[in-house]
Specification:
alpha+beta; four-stranded antiparallel beta sheet; 231 residues
Amino acid sequence: PKNADGLKQWFNGALQQYGIPQQSAAQAREWSTLGHTFYYGQSGTDALAAWNSLANMYRSFRQGEGVGRNQGQQHNRPGRSRWAEAETIRNITNQSAAQHCQQYVQPRQNAFPRAEFGLPIITHFKDTGEPADTEINHPQGDRMGSPLILRPLKIQDGKIVPVVLRLQTEVLQSVKLKEVKNGRQLADNVPVRIQELANWKDSPMYKRTQTGSALEAFLTYCKEQHYTEVK
């Protein structure tokens, strides 16, 4: 496009040119296809600055203080996660350090919501009495590419915009958990989305999704960071 104002027409023209229909979860193909919505941030002239903008936004949602975790009590010591993964692993293994017995996120059902961002996820607990290192995997294998594309886009006027695009993929329903060291299977069919986390005040998904989807919540977070939605 000639400038940021032309992004919508350019994008919709590409969808038509390549014949990519908009699909529901039930209609999704076995391979990823281009999504029909994307988000872009403030334009600039520095591609690295655009990369940093995207990376920092994503990191903040997953791990940032006040969003993905609590503020740390000590210098260079991260605070407690606001996501369900750590507590779910503690529940499955029935292992927890004494100081973590009072759970922070306490859904009634185990869940691994961040699995939607890509797999595997390796989890390491640092305190004595906590579970051994674990790995969250796809039910049909070990790996799953992320359905999110985060990248700078250069337009004809020389400006660069940071872009977030969600690919159309099958909805990930459940995952499996195993120990890293010995490969021992700990759990199968652990849900990825649970409605409770969409209404749980301690969750980063609170009021950002209606389905309990971490992907949907992240895209809402993008709009909160003044990214413009194009569809």
